[in-house]
Amino acid sequence: MYIENIDIDEQLAILWSKVYASIIYIIDNHFGREQKVVLTCNDSADAIVVTYDGVIKLLSKDGFLEDAEQFDDYVLYDVYRELR
Hints:
The chain has 2 helices and 4 strands; from the N terminus they run H-E-E-E-E-H. By secondary structure, the chain is of the alpha+beta class.
């Protein structure tokens, strides 16, 4: 039997990149950049903003606007689920 070895970290990085790009696509097509989009179903972030240069920022529950990379991956996945 053949067992394929996969690099979990590499696969998670690919997934994260696709989710990031998909969020930017959704924001571009439905809301526009530099617009605050309120999130209602997220326990870690209250809103999302995509800057003109394509950086995803999340408004934390503490009221700070931070880059998406500062949050756990699952938060970005939850944002994606809510936006689509």
